[in-house]
Specification:
The complex is a heterotrimer of chains A (216), B (224) and C (264). Chain A has 216 residues and is mostly helical. Chain A is built from eight helices and no strands. Chain A is 83% helix and 0% strand. The chains are: A mainly alpha (216), B mainly alpha (224), C alpha/beta (264).
Chain lengths: 216, 224, 264
């Protein structure tokens, strides 16, 4: 059996942290792409385009992430008779989760743009997508940056729940090391410190961006 | 797709599910209540003007908002018991949920306190009201109206978060699901139904919140 | 921190020496902000019962700060202020007693958003004077009628126009039956078409004999209603006189310069 020293534990946890970071990045980028499409659907003037995105966002914001992970990992494998690995299931679940929240954040920013901006763009004869692309989105993106960065913190923390379906990232690794070393206090403290180092800079950045936006 | 969902597992265990949902609501209400008390204390610390109290409150908020809830839960349940502070899964769950909710509500309540116009207080003073009267009759209700929407969102998040405590075997709705799943293997039906139960609970909370808003904070519609 | 302490004998002698009709006596009031900015540099003013005094002056001259010392919304470091025979001491009890007798109307109205118009007017008489609800309601109704807003009594302030809100704010202050009313730029936050309805209420109030101190830029109102006009600049009173004299034949260059700026 391996001898667990403090350095040893920290090293193992840091190795597992790579997977936390990778999963966070994939979920954030993938969720961003899907979320953008969802947001476009959500603000559409056409009701039947809007409806699916409303249901999607309501479902993923109104159910626990843990349940979404279970549904993907256990549910899909039974329903479609395909065996998803923990890694695949975690990626899918965190991406859909992230997309629903980002779509909602971005919709909020777009709705915060005064109606006069749409009217002015329309009065200039721009098409719907040109109005969006040239006038509305540039303003909305700027406004949504702080909350988007802020939500990245929720994504990083959310990846810890991938551990419940057996994906070995920081939390799962901490739990198993704690099981063999019988030092839960120490191990979870180190894990918490690592998460803090990942999340706190993002929180600070979000707050700073928000302040800059206010004073502009 | 050769799988036929079979929902008999839901009907046969309906009592179980309902028990689980009630346990989840109990867990949520207890920890939200305690968390809100912590949040008020935290906000008082944040706005006290005392550097030490403010520092403690900031450290509390930042630590618990920048680490995953699951780690916090493991820390309280496994960590504390390893140093002799043994608690049941339920106690650890309430503690972790309350402390987590407290961190988020600290910032919400602080924003509510800081959002009150100086003019409101001055108008009260100019009319000859005492400090306590100004707080009770002039500040309290608008401040609650200010923080109400953010607080409701946080309450919804807290309800969804209770599912995580199934991981230390605290017996609530998600735990019921995992238990039934391990015995019947009807995972899709069970988890889908439980998801719907959470959705319904969230909707009920939102509906109640809306009615309360209309009854007590109707004036907010006309503010600004 | 508080005003210069006077021994009781001197204080009594001074009070007697003054006009027995004085409602406000301010003597040598000086104030520094926390950043050491000397905002009031020794201001004297006496306001007699039934008198209407208009204070004018450029922004930053300290005129708002000055009238806010009368009900202790602004602490001051030197000088003394006496309201209706009671010296302001900044002791909590004393301040509360004085604030009951001094009504104030703010630039931004400061109505309470969660209370209806009627409740806004009823609040202070019930909380401070201990009136019964029915009594407060009767009085509030009477005052709202007087300022022409009775029909909106059940609405929230946010549903009213600025001019209507300011008239409610006047009724709210009057409900305490104050000995003197302070107006801190009551029409500055209003759209032009609403200024008049507020000034009309203030005119009626003056005609009914209310003692008033108004910080305002409304020259028409000052000429017509004021008994005295005062110019403040850089924390001091520069000129003081009847409106006739003040507007038509100002003695000081500073006053002439100010008037030429606001009269175009």
């Amino acid at each position: 059996m391996q001898d667990f020293t403090l350095t040893n534990i920290t090293y193992s946890l840091l190795l597992a942290t790579r997977w936390t970071i990778v999963l966070s990045l994939i979920a954030f980028v993938g969720g961003g792409l899907v979320g953008f499409l969802l947001m476009l659907m959500r603000i559409s003037p056409v009701a039947w385009v809007r409806l699916p995105s409303i249901v999607y966002i309501e479902f993923f914001q109104g159910t626990p992430l843990i349940m979404q992970l279970f549904l993907v990992f256990f549910g899909i494998s039974v329903l479609f008779q395909i065996n998803l690995s923990a890694w695949e299931a975690a990626t899918i679940a965190l991406t859909t989760y992230t997309s629903a929240f980002l779509a909602d954040i971005w919709r909020g920013s777009i709705e915060a743009i005064p109606q006069g901006q749409w009217e002015a763009a329309r009065a200039l004869g721009l098409s719907y997508f040109k109005q969006l692309k040239r006038i509305i989105l540039p303003q909305a993106v700027k406004m949504s940056v702080p909350s988007t960065v802020g939500f990245a913190v929720q994504v990083v923390k959310g990846t810890s729940l991938a551990s419940v379906i057996g994906f070995v990232e920081l939390t799962r690794s901490a739990a198993s090391i704690s099981n063999v070393t019988f030092q839960p206090f120490l191990v979870f403290s180190i894990a918490a410190a690592i998460y803090f180092c990942l999340c706190f800079p993002l929180s600070l950045l979000s707050k700073r961006l928000e302040r800059r936006f206010v004073f502009e | 797709m050769g799988y036929t969902p079979n929902y008999s597992v839901i009907f046969n265990n309906l009592g179980f599910f309902i028990q689980g949902a009630i346990a989840t609501l109990q867990l949520a209400m207890t920890s939200i209540f305690l968390g809100l008390l912590l949040g008020i204390l935290g906000a008082l610390g944040r706005t006290s003007g005392n550097r030490i109290l403010n520092g403690i409150a900031v450290a509390y908020v930042e630590f618990f908002r920048n680490t995953p809830f699951l780690i916090q839960l493991f820390f309280f349940y496994f960590g504390f018991s390893s140093v002799g502070l043994r608690m049941t899964a339920w106690q650890a769950a309430v503690l972790a949920l309350a402390i987590n909710f407290g961190a988020y509500s600290t910032e919400i309540v602080r924003a509510g306190i800081e959002g009150i116009g100086k003019g409101q207080v001055e108008a009260g003073l100019a009319l000859g009201l005492k400090k306590m009267q100004i707080f009770r009759r002039i500040i309290l209700v608008p401040a609650l109206g200010n923080i109400y929407p953010a607080l409701v969102s946080q309450i919804v998040i807290a309800i969804l978060f209770t599912s995580v405590v199934s991981q230390v075997s605290a017996e609530e709705l998600t735990f019921v699901g995992s238990y039934l799943q391990s015995r019947t293997f009807r995972s899709f039906e069970i988890y889908f139904f439980i998801s719907l139960l959470y959705l319904v609970m969230v909707w009920i909370v939102k509906l109640v919140a809306y009615l309360v808003q209309r009854r007590f904070f109707g004036f907010m519609r006309y503010v600004r | 921190m508080t005003s210069t302490p006077l021994d009781p004998a001197t204080a009594a002698a001074q009070a007697v020496a003054h006009d027995p009709n004085a409602v406000i006596i301010a003597e040598g009031v000086e104030k520094w902000y926390a950043n050491n900015f000397h905002v009031l540099k020794g201001v004297d003013l006496t306001v007699r019962r039934g008198e209407v005094v208009v204070i004018m002056g450029p922004s930053g001259s300290g005129k708002s700060t000055f009238i806010r010392t009368f009900n202790a919304l602004e602490p001051y470091q030197k000088g003394r202020i006496e309201i209706d025979g009671t010296e302001l001491t900044h002791k909590m009890r004393n301040v509360e007693v004085i604030r009951r007798e001094v009504g104030m109307v703010f630039q931004q109205f400061n109505l309470f958003p969660h209370l209806t118009v009627l409740e806004n007017v009823m609040l202070a008489p019930m909380e401070v004077r201990g009136w019964k609800k029915a009594q407060a309601k009767d009085k509030a109704g009477e005052l709202l009628e007087r300022v022409g807003i009775l029909s909106q009594a059940q609405k929230y302030p946010g549903q009213l126009s600025g001019g209507q809100q300011q008239r409610v704010a006047i009724a709210r202050a009057l409900a305490m039956q104050p000995k003197v009313m302070l107006f801190d730029e009551p029409t500055s936050a209003l759209d032009p078409e609403m200024v008049r309805e507020v000034l009309d209420v203030m005119r009626t109030l003056a005609a009914d004999g209310m003692t008033m101190v108004c910080v305002t830029h409304e020259v028409g109102f000052a000429r017509e209603v004021a008994d005295r006009a005062v110019l403040m600049a850089d924390g001091l009173i520069v000129e003081e006189g009847t409106p006739q004299q003040f507007f038509s034949n100002p003695q000081r260059d500073r006053t002439r310069q100010f008037l030429s700026q606001i009269l175009h």
